[in-house]
Design a protein that fits this description.
Elements: H1 13-18, H2 25-29, H3 37-45, E1 48-55, E2 58-65, E3 72-75, E4 78-83, H4 91-98, E5 101-107, E6 114-124, H5 127-132, E7 142-154, H6 157-162, H7 177-184, H8 191-204
Antiparallel strand pairs: 1-2, 1-5, 3-4, 4-7, 5-6, 6-7
Helix pairs in contact: 7-8
Length: about 210
């Protein structure tokens, strides 16, 4: 679709800034270049983070989860993120090899505020780092070390609007993973079989 002649498109920073008011003092003051103890407490309580990376093939955002505190605070400028077993696509790791810039978004169930961390990442297989990230007796494949550049919390509006943490009685009617694979492969993959085997397969390969 060609939007080149759309008069409603925003083309300049001046146009963009005119759409919004001045940045509030709290929004400026909350950003720091290190991990304040209050921010460290949020990371230690979080069981879920999204890792954003960029590389030659474009952008990627990958979910990571484990018991709270799985992203470890080495010091006020360094985080440690274990790389668990997965599908072996290693999209995030490939990107980090090409471009070390990363962004993380931490979520805590029941808490409206999220935490954003921007920095630069490196990949390590140092035995002492793998050991400290062991889970269920299994070492991660590697660990991602994040050198922190910017940290700030995001206000609760997105969580409130989405009602993300509200109790839901019914599971949404969405296609299963097997149904998606069967549709994408013109039934080369048996979706029903994939779904039946998924719980046992995932439990066996969790770590």
């Amino acid at each position: 679709m060609n939007h080149g002649n759309d008069p409603h498109l925003v083309h300049t920073l001046t146009q963009l800034e005119a759409l919004f008011g001045a940045v509030g003092e709290a929004s400026l003051k909350k950003e720091v270049a290190y991990l304040h103890p209050s921010y460290a407490a949020l990371i230690q309580a979080s069981p879920f983070v999204t890792l954003a990376t960029a590389g030659p093939e474009g952008l990627d955002a990958s979910p990571r989860g484990d018991p709270p505190g799985f992203v470890q605070v080495l010091d006020d400028k360094t985080l440690l993120l274990p790389e668990r077993r997965g599908n072996n696509r290693i999209d995030s790791l490939r990107n980090i090899m090409a471009d070390p810039r990363v962004a993380l978004l931490f979520l805590i169930p029941g808490v409206g505020e999220t935490l954003r961390v921007n920095g630069r990442a490196s990949i390590s297989v140092a035995p002492e780092l793998l050991e400290r990230c062991a889970m269920a007796g299994k070492l991660p494949q590697c660990v991602i070390m994040i050198d922190i550049e910017r940290v700030f919390f995001q206000c609760a509006r997105a969580i409130q609007r989405s009602r993300l943490w509200d109790a839901r009685d019914a599971k949404p009617e969405v296609p299963s993973a097997g149904a998606i694979l069967e549709a994408l492969t013109d039934a080369a993959i048996d979706g029903a079989l994939y779904d039946r085997e998924a719980p046992a397969r995932q439990a066996k390969t969790l770590y």
